[in-house]
TrEMBL record:
Organism: Actinomadura madurae
UniProt keyword annotation of Transcription regulation present: yes
SUPFAM superfamilies membership: lambda repressor-like DNA-binding domains (SSF47413), Periplasmic binding protein-like I (SSF53822)
CDD domains, alphabetized: HTH_LacI, PBP1_LacI_sugar_binding-like
Entries under PROSITE patterns matching the protein: HTH_LACI_2
Name of protein: Transcriptional regulator, LacI family
High-level lineage: Bacteria, Bacillati, Actinomycetota, Actinomycetes, Streptosporangiales
GO molecular function, one term: DNA-binding transcription factor activity
Keywords linked to the UniProt accession: DNA-binding, Transcription, Transcription regulation
């Protein structure tokens, strides 16, 4: 009996032919030179690579020539200035602190939410990293797909979201508890019409905060009023101001506002004060995250302190332990949050 020789693995020319592009275009995708390439072309090339089982560096998919000592921080964010977001900055700083201490580099790569964009996972496919941290937003089903696709590429993975998959490491904050406690704080002060403001793009932590808000209302027998919730715009003060104006124009406006983060809260306070309303005498306002500026607003902002730096620090520690073979079982960690009561509520 003769044994068939192993099938010859496809090269750049085969990928180019299947995708209907030039060899240079395939090379550009392989080497992440896709800045001026259309998304449609890149996705077509990546599909051809998958269909032909083509991987760079003549290695089988999922294997690498050597350890890179690099962690991928993969982020979905609709904002062009995603690195200027205070919470993202805190989380990346925590990751970076551990990486520097342990001799690793951090590769930050981002895409916008929406339909699944496999370009976000290029650093893993190209064997440029030893593991990945995922900070995702957008539709929950698409977020799950990113996690599943990443799992197929590497077992070294930490996600900043609560998941039902026990095989994936997760690190989050107790956002639901924080929102529940702050809603109770407002109810104890006599508020019954409490608004909740979030952004148009779904974020896992906001979903948890909104759930905690609803849970507290139910606990105290207060009917949830969809007319007291708005999810618009992005994480900035202008969005907070616009939503505060819209929700105060309702026939029965709220006497208190819980904002999804501190940036929305300071915008809401500015708009309320410009309209001649007093905070907290006329409308109480609560933020979330306790960014450094929160204590310097007028009035100082009541908020929930979220340990962003510690989340990044813990996630990077878990990931490197997994890469080094010192951790085999996945872990799910929920870091505590803290009420910070100041003058705004």
């Amino acid at each position: 009996m003769t044994t068939k020789p192993p099938a010859k693995r496809s090269g750049l020319k085969a990928v180019a032919a299947l995708a209907g592009v030039s060899v240079q275009t395939v090379s550009n995708v392989v080497n992440a030179r896709v800045g001026e390439m259309s998304t449609e072309t890149r996705l077509r090339v990546e599909k051809a690579m998958r269909d032909l089982n083509y991987t760079p560096n003549s290695q089988a998919r999922g294997l690498r020539i050597q350890k890179t000592n690099t962690l991928a921080f993969l982020l979905l964010d609709p904002d062009e200035r995603y690195l200027a977001d205070p919470m993202t900055d805190l989380i990346i700083s925590g990751v970076g602190a551990v990486a520097r201490e342990r001799g690793y580099m951090v590769l930050v790569h981002a895409a916008k939410p929406g339909d699944f964009d496999s370009g976000l996972l290029l650093p893993i496919r190209q064997n440029r990293v030893d593991g990945a941290l995922l900070l995702l937003c957008g539709d929950a089903a698409v977020r799950r797909r990113y996690t599943e696709e990443t799992k197929q590429l590497t077992s070294n993975l930490v996600v900043f979201e609560d998941l039902v998959d026990p095989s994936v490491n997760t690190v989050t904050a107790q956002n639901r508890v924080g929102a529940y406690d702050m809603t109770m704080h407002l109810i104890d002060k006599g508020h019954r019409r409490i608004a909740f403001l979030g952004t148009a793009t779904p974020w896992p932590m906001i979903e948890q905060r909104f759930a905690g808000y609803q849970e507290a209302l139910k606990k105290r027998g207060i009917a949830f009023d969809p007319g007291l919730t708005l999810f618009e715009g992005e994480w900035n003060a202008d969005t907070g101001a616009q939503m505060a104006a819209r929700i105060r124009a309702r026939p029965q406006p709220p006497t208190a506002i819980i904002a999804g983060n501190d940036l929305l809260a300071i915008g809401a306070i500015a708009k309320l004060k410009a309209a001649g309303l007093r905070v907290p005498e006329d409308v109480s306002v609560i933020g979330f995250n306790d960014f450094e500026f929160a204590q310097h607003t007028d009035p100082p902002l009541t908020t929930v302190r979220v340990p962003g730096f510690e989340m990044g620090h813990r996630a990077a520690t878990i990931l490197i332990e997994q890469i080094d073979g010192k951790q085999s079982d996945a872990t799910s960690e929920h870091l505590p949050v803290e009420q910070v009561i100041r003058a705004s509520a």
